[in-house]
Amino acid sequence: MNFDIITLFPALFDSPLQAGVLGRALEKQLFHIEIHNLRNWADPPHFVVDDAPYGGGGGMVMKPEPIHRAMETVRRKNPRSRVLLMTPQGRTFRQRDAISLAREEGLIFLCGRYEGIDERVRSWVDDEFSIGDFVLSGGEFAALVMVDAIARLVPGVLGNELSAGADSFGDGLLEYPHFTRPAEFAGMRVPEVLLSGNHGQIARWRRRESLRRTLQRRPDLLDSAELTGEDRAFLESLRKRPEEDQRR
Ligand code: ADE
Q1: Staple partner for 245: which of 76, 89, 222, 241, CB 3.0–4.6 Å?
Q2: 142: Cβ below 6 Å to ligand 1?
Q3: How big is the CA angle at 92 (ends 212 and 116), to the nearest 5 degrees?
Q4: 129 CA: nearest ligand 1 atom
Q5: How far apart (Å, rounded) are the C-alpha atoms in residues 214 and 225?
Q6: Is the pLDDT of residue 190 over 80?
Q7: Nearest atom within ligand 1 for CA of residue 137
Q8: Lowest mean per-residue pLDDT among 34-43, 159-168, 220-229
Q9: What pLDDT, in 10s, does the model give residues 19-31?
Protein backbone atom coordinates (compact mmCIF):
# COMPACT_ATOMS: atom_id res chain seq x y z
CA MET A 1 0.00 0.00 0.00
CA ASN A 2 1.27 3.45 -0.96
CA PHE A 3 0.16 6.58 0.84
CA ASP A 4 0.97 9.94 -0.75
CA ILE A 5 0.15 13.11 1.14
CA ILE A 6 0.04 16.51 -0.50
CA THR A 7 0.29 19.26 2.10
CA LEU A 8 1.64 22.73 2.81
CA PHE A 9 2.94 21.53 6.19
CA PRO A 10 5.04 18.38 5.73
CA ALA A 11 6.54 18.78 9.23
CA LEU A 12 3.18 17.89 10.78
CA PHE A 13 3.69 14.32 9.58
CA ASP A 14 7.14 13.75 11.08
CA SER A 15 6.64 12.31 14.54
CA PRO A 16 3.16 10.75 14.30
CA LEU A 17 4.49 8.35 11.69
CA GLN A 18 7.59 7.39 13.63
CA ALA A 19 6.06 5.95 16.79
CA GLY A 20 4.04 2.89 17.71
CA VAL A 21 2.36 0.47 15.34
CA LEU A 22 2.74 2.68 12.27
CA GLY A 23 6.40 3.44 12.98
CA ARG A 24 7.21 -0.26 13.27
CA ALA A 25 5.23 -1.12 10.13
CA LEU A 26 7.01 1.62 8.17
CA GLU A 27 10.37 0.30 9.31
CA LYS A 28 9.35 -3.15 8.10
CA GLN A 29 8.19 -1.57 4.82
CA LEU A 30 4.71 -3.04 5.17
CA PHE A 31 3.47 0.15 3.52
CA HIS A 32 5.07 3.25 2.06
CA ILE A 33 4.30 6.85 2.74
CA GLU A 34 5.57 9.91 0.96
CA ILE A 35 4.88 13.49 2.05
CA HIS A 36 4.85 16.07 -0.76
CA ASN A 37 5.21 19.78 -0.13
CA LEU A 38 2.59 21.53 -2.25
CA ARG A 39 4.70 24.66 -2.36
CA ASN A 40 7.18 22.82 -4.61
CA TRP A 41 4.58 23.04 -7.39
CA ALA A 42 3.86 26.77 -6.96
CA ASP A 43 5.32 29.33 -9.36
CA PRO A 44 8.62 31.08 -8.61
CA PRO A 45 9.71 33.58 -7.49
CA HIS A 46 7.16 33.83 -4.66
CA PHE A 47 5.70 30.31 -4.64
CA VAL A 48 2.25 31.61 -3.81
CA VAL A 49 -0.33 28.88 -3.12
CA ASP A 50 -3.40 30.96 -2.23
CA ASP A 51 -5.31 33.98 -3.43
CA ALA A 52 -8.29 36.15 -2.51
CA PRO A 53 -11.72 34.74 -3.33
CA TYR A 54 -13.58 35.96 -6.43
CA GLY A 55 -16.64 37.86 -5.26
CA GLY A 56 -14.84 39.26 -2.23
CA GLY A 57 -15.15 38.35 1.43
CA GLY A 58 -12.58 37.28 3.97
CA GLY A 59 -10.06 34.48 3.93
CA MET A 60 -7.87 33.05 1.22
CA VAL A 61 -8.52 30.25 -1.22
CA MET A 62 -5.98 27.64 -2.32
CA LYS A 63 -5.11 28.11 -5.98
CA PRO A 64 -5.88 25.27 -8.39
CA GLU A 65 -2.65 25.22 -10.47
CA PRO A 66 -0.14 23.98 -7.84
CA ILE A 67 -2.64 21.35 -6.69
CA HIS A 68 -3.21 20.16 -10.26
CA ARG A 69 0.54 19.88 -10.92
CA ALA A 70 1.13 18.07 -7.62
CA MET A 71 -1.67 15.59 -8.28
CA GLU A 72 -0.51 14.92 -11.84
CA THR A 73 3.06 14.25 -10.69
CA VAL A 74 2.08 11.97 -7.81
CA ARG A 75 -0.51 10.16 -9.93
CA ARG A 76 2.00 9.49 -12.69
CA LYS A 77 4.04 7.53 -10.19
CA ASN A 78 1.06 5.65 -8.74
CA PRO A 79 -1.58 5.69 -11.50
CA ARG A 80 -3.98 3.36 -9.69
CA SER A 81 -4.08 5.36 -6.44
CA ARG A 82 -7.38 6.92 -5.36
CA VAL A 83 -7.28 10.65 -4.66
CA LEU A 84 -9.01 11.73 -1.45
CA LEU A 85 -9.70 15.33 -0.53
CA MET A 86 -9.81 16.13 3.20
CA THR A 87 -12.63 18.57 3.84
CA PRO A 88 -15.31 19.14 6.49
CA GLN A 89 -17.77 19.00 3.57
CA GLY A 90 -16.85 15.40 2.71
CA ARG A 91 -18.75 12.34 3.82
CA THR A 92 -17.91 11.17 7.31
CA PHE A 93 -15.08 8.64 7.42
CA ARG A 94 -16.18 5.37 9.06
CA GLN A 95 -14.61 2.01 9.87
CA ARG A 96 -16.25 0.48 6.81
CA ASP A 97 -14.44 3.08 4.66
CA ALA A 98 -11.16 2.18 6.37
CA ILE A 99 -11.81 -1.49 5.53
CA SER A 100 -12.54 -0.83 1.87
CA LEU A 101 -9.73 1.75 1.41
CA ALA A 102 -7.22 -0.71 2.96
CA ARG A 103 -7.79 -2.89 -0.13
CA GLU A 104 -6.64 -0.13 -2.52
CA GLU A 105 -3.19 -0.21 -4.05
CA GLY A 106 -2.56 3.39 -3.10
CA LEU A 107 -4.18 6.50 -1.66
CA ILE A 108 -3.34 10.14 -2.30
CA PHE A 109 -4.49 12.52 0.45
CA LEU A 110 -4.96 16.14 -0.49
CA CYS A 111 -4.92 18.40 2.58
CA GLY A 112 -6.70 21.73 2.38
CA ARG A 113 -5.76 24.89 4.29
CA TYR A 114 -7.03 28.47 4.47
CA GLU A 115 -10.72 29.17 3.91
CA GLY A 116 -11.03 26.56 1.26
CA ILE A 117 -9.86 25.13 -2.01
CA ASP A 118 -10.76 26.40 -5.47
CA GLU A 119 -13.95 24.52 -6.33
CA ARG A 120 -12.48 23.17 -9.61
CA VAL A 121 -10.14 20.90 -7.62
CA ARG A 122 -13.15 18.83 -6.56
CA SER A 123 -13.62 17.56 -10.10
CA TRP A 124 -10.16 15.90 -10.06
CA VAL A 125 -10.55 13.89 -6.87
CA ASP A 126 -12.16 10.46 -6.43
CA ASP A 127 -13.70 11.08 -3.03
CA GLU A 128 -14.02 13.68 -0.27
CA PHE A 129 -13.83 12.78 3.43
CA SER A 130 -14.48 14.55 6.71
CA ILE A 131 -13.41 13.03 10.05
CA GLY A 132 -16.32 14.64 11.91
CA ASP A 133 -18.59 17.62 12.23
CA PHE A 134 -15.99 20.12 13.40
CA VAL A 135 -13.59 22.37 11.55
CA LEU A 136 -9.83 21.80 11.76
CA SER A 137 -7.30 24.36 10.64
CA GLY A 138 -6.38 22.04 7.79
CA GLY A 139 -6.76 18.54 6.44
CA GLU A 140 -3.42 17.25 7.82
CA PHE A 141 -4.75 15.79 11.06
CA ALA A 142 -7.70 14.31 9.18
CA ALA A 143 -5.27 12.61 6.77
CA LEU A 144 -3.24 11.28 9.71
CA VAL A 145 -6.37 9.90 11.35
CA MET A 146 -7.33 8.14 8.13
CA VAL A 147 -3.82 6.82 7.45
CA ASP A 148 -3.72 5.36 10.96
CA ALA A 149 -7.14 3.71 10.69
CA ILE A 150 -6.37 2.30 7.22
CA ALA A 151 -2.72 1.28 7.68
CA ARG A 152 -3.46 -0.83 10.78
CA LEU A 153 -5.74 -2.95 8.58
CA VAL A 154 -2.96 -3.71 6.09
CA PRO A 155 -1.98 -7.38 6.61
CA GLY A 156 0.99 -7.74 8.96
CA VAL A 157 0.81 -4.23 10.45
CA LEU A 158 -0.88 -5.37 13.66
CA GLY A 159 1.19 -8.07 15.33
CA ASN A 160 -1.85 -10.19 16.04
CA GLU A 161 -4.07 -10.59 12.97
CA LEU A 162 -7.03 -11.15 15.26
CA SER A 163 -6.74 -7.78 16.93
CA ALA A 164 -8.37 -5.83 14.11
CA GLY A 165 -11.22 -8.33 13.79
CA ALA A 166 -12.55 -7.68 17.29
CA ASP A 167 -12.27 -3.88 16.99
CA SER A 168 -15.16 -1.66 17.84
CA PHE A 169 -17.23 -1.13 14.65
CA GLY A 170 -15.62 -4.19 13.00
CA ASP A 171 -18.98 -5.96 13.06
CA GLY A 172 -20.97 -2.79 13.54
CA LEU A 173 -20.87 -2.97 17.37
CA LEU A 174 -18.74 -1.39 20.08
CA GLU A 175 -16.11 -3.68 21.55
CA TYR A 176 -16.65 -5.58 24.84
CA PRO A 177 -14.80 -4.42 28.01
CA HIS A 178 -11.22 -5.60 28.62
CA PHE A 179 -9.51 -6.56 31.87
CA THR A 180 -6.01 -7.63 32.83
CA ARG A 181 -4.33 -8.59 36.11
CA PRO A 182 -4.83 -8.18 39.02
CA ALA A 183 -8.16 -10.01 39.39
CA GLU A 184 -9.15 -7.52 42.06
CA PHE A 185 -8.14 -3.88 42.27
CA ALA A 186 -9.51 -1.00 44.35
CA GLY A 187 -12.41 -3.21 45.43
CA MET A 188 -13.37 -4.03 41.83
CA ARG A 189 -13.30 -7.64 40.66
CA VAL A 190 -12.78 -8.85 37.13
CA PRO A 191 -15.97 -10.70 36.00
CA GLU A 192 -15.68 -14.35 37.10
CA VAL A 193 -16.41 -15.73 33.65
CA LEU A 194 -13.15 -14.26 32.31
CA LEU A 195 -11.19 -16.20 34.93
CA SER A 196 -13.05 -19.45 34.19
CA GLY A 197 -11.02 -20.58 31.18
CA ASN A 198 -14.31 -21.58 29.50
CA HIS A 199 -13.86 -20.14 26.01
CA GLY A 200 -17.45 -20.76 24.94
CA GLN A 201 -18.83 -18.87 27.92
CA ILE A 202 -16.26 -16.11 27.50
CA ALA A 203 -17.22 -15.61 23.85
CA ARG A 204 -20.91 -15.46 24.81
CA TRP A 205 -20.22 -12.98 27.63
CA ARG A 206 -18.17 -10.78 25.29
CA ARG A 207 -20.87 -10.77 22.64
CA ARG A 208 -23.48 -9.80 25.20
CA GLU A 209 -21.32 -7.03 26.73
CA SER A 210 -20.66 -5.74 23.25
CA LEU A 211 -24.42 -5.59 22.61
CA ARG A 212 -25.11 -4.03 26.02
CA ARG A 213 -22.47 -1.37 25.48
CA THR A 214 -23.67 -0.52 22.00
CA LEU A 215 -27.27 -0.23 23.24
CA GLN A 216 -26.16 2.10 26.07
CA ARG A 217 -23.73 4.28 24.17
CA ARG A 218 -24.45 4.08 20.46
CA PRO A 219 -27.93 2.64 19.90
CA ASP A 220 -27.85 4.14 16.38
CA LEU A 221 -25.25 1.49 15.40
CA LEU A 222 -27.70 -1.35 16.10
CA ASP A 223 -29.78 -0.42 13.04
CA SER A 224 -27.03 -1.55 10.67
CA ALA A 225 -25.14 -4.13 12.81
CA GLU A 226 -25.07 -7.80 11.87
CA LEU A 227 -27.28 -9.42 14.54
CA THR A 228 -28.34 -13.01 15.12
CA GLY A 229 -31.71 -14.04 16.51
CA GLU A 230 -30.03 -14.61 19.88
CA ASP A 231 -28.51 -11.10 19.77
CA ARG A 232 -31.94 -9.60 19.10
CA ALA A 233 -33.54 -11.56 21.94
CA PHE A 234 -30.80 -10.41 24.34
CA LEU A 235 -31.24 -6.77 23.29
CA GLU A 236 -34.98 -7.10 23.76
CA SER A 237 -34.45 -8.44 27.29
CA LEU A 238 -32.14 -5.50 28.06
CA ARG A 239 -34.64 -3.00 26.76
CA LYS A 240 -37.31 -4.43 29.08
CA ARG A 241 -35.10 -4.18 32.18
CA PRO A 242 -35.14 -1.17 34.52
CA GLU A 243 -32.70 1.63 33.58
CA GLU A 244 -30.40 0.90 36.57
CA ASP A 245 -29.86 -2.68 35.47
CA GLN A 246 -28.99 -1.69 31.88
CA ARG A 247 -26.21 0.64 32.93
CA ARG A 248 -23.96 -1.91 34.59
N1 ADE B 1 -10.38 20.02 7.17
C2 ADE B 1 -10.89 20.87 8.09
N3 ADE B 1 -11.76 20.25 8.89
C4 ADE B 1 -11.82 18.94 8.48
C5 ADE B 1 -12.54 17.80 8.91
N6 ADE B 1 -13.40 17.87 9.93
N7 ADE B 1 -12.35 16.66 8.26
C8 ADE B 1 -11.50 16.60 7.20
N9 ADE B 1 -10.79 17.63 6.76
C10 ADE B 1 -10.94 18.81 7.39
Answers
A1: 241
A2: yes
A3: 150
A4: 8
A5: 10
A6: yes
A7: 2
A8: 159-168
A9: 999 999 999 999 9
Q: For residue 130, how far is its CA from the centre of ligand 1 (angstroms)?
A: 5
Q: 52: Cβ–Cβ under 8 A, 6 or more apart, which residues?
A: 60, 61
- The set of residues, in sequence order, having a beta carbon less than 8 Å from that of 67 and lying 6+ positions away, is 6, 38, 41, 110, 117, 118, 121, 124
Strand 50-51 versus strand 32-37 pairing type: unpaired
Determine if the pTM surpasses 0.70. Answer: yes
pLDDT at 50 over 80: yes
With the C-alpha atoms ordered 144, 147, 153, 158, is the resulting torsion angle positive or negative? negative
* Complete domains list, the chain, with CATH: 2-151 (3.40.1280.10), 168-246 (1.10.1270.20)
Mutation test residue for ligand 1: of 91, 114, 134, 136, the one with most atoms within 8 Å of CB: 136
